[in-house]
């Protein structure tokens, strides 16, 4: 006799795995900011990222990275400052990732650290140029937008909402854009 | 100590700290540094509208939203406790150049002459804030990342697509600054 309950459980399980796979596929589409961790995290687990963000935001303000003038100086080649910031950040990041991979360092929860490779598509060219245009106009990439709002520039909320709309419109017309 | 905290920090302090975010997020929980994705998660959580690009388990990315809320709060704290009253140092020729467009207030990180609620309703302000913001949101997602995801995280991980993206960010920025922005500022 067939055990129907097990059978249905099996079907439901299969469907779940399929949907999970599909979801992770979609998340990997832009290969950025994917959460590699398999662990479920609760509200209190997430607080640590808020604290990292908080320090990050303070650095943004204190180094004046969120300043429209700094971005203008960078693009007008009038100052080394922003090149120094990004350059030294990349060097520190590079050394860190080198050692994380080399020493096979694990996360605090004991998970193997994985960094997904990025796959090339033409979006990096077209989208990159479009973002560059917006960056020089607003003087802010997405990170500084949050810091600027926190710093009290209330009107930047409009820029922020517009950026969300831009992301949404990209998602809407993604299939029609060259990649 | 407080004196130091109140001054603007040099690039060789700020840059390495920003770079350290990469290993800190990885070690804390296998998280890949990136900020523009938060905009996607907000779309996915608030208005997915059956768009496949927004059909994923955004709750799994909640950490990213906590991270950006942290950045916001960092801005609040810096504003309340860590600001110095002096106006920021802006390159002299740039100041003179900007003065031609009526930008004379260099005291804020966000130029008051350009970004305020009144100017939002002028053509110049509308283009800079609304159109500019749209391009940031659209472009970063199209490129699959922003300065943090590509230029810092991607380059740190020696990803050549991120190098392509970073070069294109700069090309776009140069085109805007040298060719288009003077026209917008003249409006």
What's the layout of helices and strands?
The complex is a heterodimer of chains A (179) and B (187).
Chain A: H1 4-28, H2 43-62, H3 68-75, H4 81-102, H5 123-138, H6 142-151, H7 156-173
Chain B: H1 2-6, H2 11-29, H3 37-46, H4 62-81, H5 92-99, H6 123-143, H7 147-156, H8 160-186
Helix pairs in contact in B: 3-4, 6-8, 7-8
Q: What is the makeup of the main sheet of chain A?
A: none
Which runs of chain B of at least 5 residues are low in confidence (pLDDT < 50)?
none
| Overall outline of chain A | globular
Shape of chain B: globular
Distance N to C terminus of chain A: 53 Å
- Count of DSSP-assigned helices of chain A: 7
Total helix count of chain B? 8
Could you name the ranges of chain A where pLDDT drops below 50 across 5 or more consecutive residues? Answer: none
Alpha carbon gap, first and last residue of chain B: 45 Å
What is the ordering of alpha helices and beta strands of chain B?
HHHHHHHH
Count the E strands of chain A.
0
């Amino acid at each position: 006799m067939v055990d129907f309950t097990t059978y249905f459980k099996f079907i439901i399980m299969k469907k779940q795995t399929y949907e999970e796979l599909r979801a992770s596929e979609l998340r990997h589409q832009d290969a950025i900011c994917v959460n590699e961790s398999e662990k479920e995290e609760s509200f209190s687990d997430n607080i640590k990222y808020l604290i990292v963000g908080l320090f990050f935001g303070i650095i943004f303000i204190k180094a004046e990275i969120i300043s429209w003038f700094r971005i203008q100086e960078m693009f007008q080649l009038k100052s080394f400052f922003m090149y120094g910031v990004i350059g030294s950040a990349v060097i520190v990041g590079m050394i860190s990732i080198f050692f994380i991979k080399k020493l096979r360092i694990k996360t605090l929860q004991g998970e193997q650290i994985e960094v997904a490779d990025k796959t090339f598509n033409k979006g990096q060219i077209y989208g990159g140029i479009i973002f560059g245009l917006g960056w020089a106009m607003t003087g802010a990439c997405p990170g500084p937008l949050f810091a600027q709002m926190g710093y009290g520039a209330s009107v930047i909320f409009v820029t922020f909402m517009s950026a969300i709309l831009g992301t949404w419109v990209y998602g809407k017309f993604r299939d029609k854009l060259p990649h | 100590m407080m004196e130091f905290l109140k001054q603007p920090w040099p690039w060789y302090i700020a840059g390495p700290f920003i770079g350290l975010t990469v290993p800190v997020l990885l070690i804390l929980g296998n998280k890949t540094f990136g900020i523009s994705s938060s905009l996607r998660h907000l779309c996915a959580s608030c208005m997915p509208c059956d768009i496949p690009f927004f059909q994923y388990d955004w709750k799994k990315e909640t950490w990213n939203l906590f991270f950006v809320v942290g950045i916001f709060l960092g801005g609040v704290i810096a504003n309340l406790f860590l600001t110095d009253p002096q106006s920021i140092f802006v390159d002299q020729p740039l100041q003179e150049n900007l003065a031609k467009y009526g930008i004379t207030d260099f005291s804020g990180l966000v130029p008051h002459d350009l970004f305020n609620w009144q100017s939002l309703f002028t053509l110049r302000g509308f283009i800079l804030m609304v159109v500019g913001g749209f391009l940031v949101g659209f472009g970063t997602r199209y490129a699959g990342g922003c300065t943090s995801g590509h230029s810092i995280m991607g380059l740190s991980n020696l990803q050549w697509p991120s190098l392509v993206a970073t070069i294109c960010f700069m090309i776009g920025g140069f085109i805007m600054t040298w060719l288009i922005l003077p026209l917008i500022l003249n409006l």
